[in-house]
Amino acid sequence: MSRINHFLDSLDARDLAAIEPALERLSLRQNDVLTEPDQPVSHVYLPIDCILSVVVLMRDGGQVESRTLGREGGYGLLHSLGSRIAFERMIVQVSGDCWRVPTATLQAAAANSPALTRAIVQHGQASLLQAARSTACNALHPAEKRLCRWLLLTQDRLDSDVLPLTQEHLAIMLGVQRTTVTGVAMQLQARGVISYSRGRIRVLDREGIEACACECYGAIQETTRRILQG
């Protein structure tokens, strides 16, 4: 039976049976903080229809998103194979459900299964790829193109035209001021590709957003596909 999470659905029956008794389904709310820097990662979170945001914190209080995680993978997978200390904050960006399993449970199961270890590494690599691509994108591409990339990735994960995104989250994601978020969103609205109101974006013309987005959206999708197909 599908669990609507790519990592779980990729496991064979034996590996799934090893962790299934410890799997717990949770309903998460927007802005819930699930991990903090320098704290142990006690659980692996595997989204179903929520979206998680991994945020890097600076000493002056600044913060920027390094990557987002949806049903294609999860947070904490690589922690089950190595250090269990978090180096970033992880928050719920879009409310919804997810699976949770103790990190120790996944570690013990992986110790007895090369196939499970491979699945963990592959999905971890896909997450790190997105972080690397986001770093390059934030440095090289204008805010409008970055926002379009993010809207496409979010819509893929939610299967919905309505994206419940706050101005604060968008500012963290783009690494810009809130006023910049408003300006960019209004430009896209003027083109007729989205409608924008506080706390919500509705996708009106996906093809138009794809035309506006930078190359990074397609690169993330293609490279992720190649990694997960092995």
TrEMBL record:
Keywords: DNA-binding, Transcription, Transcription regulation
Gene Ontology MF term list: DNA binding; DNA-binding transcription factor activity
Pfam family, one: HTH_Crp_2
Lineage: Bacteria, Pseudomonadati, Pseudomonadota, Alphaproteobacteria, Caulobacterales
Organism: Phenylobacterium zucineum (strain HLK1)
PANTHER family linked to this entry: CRP FAMILY TRANSCRIPTIONAL REGULATORY PROTEIN (PTHR24567), HTH-TYPE TRANSCRIPTIONAL REGULATOR ARCR (PTHR24567:SF74)
Superkingdom classification of source: Bacteria
Domain HTH crp-type: 141-207
UniProt protein name: Transcriptional regulator, Crp/Fnr family
SUPFAM superfamilies named in the record: cAMP-binding domain-like (SSF51206), Winged helix' DNA-binding domain (SSF46785)
Record-level GO cellular component terms: cytosol
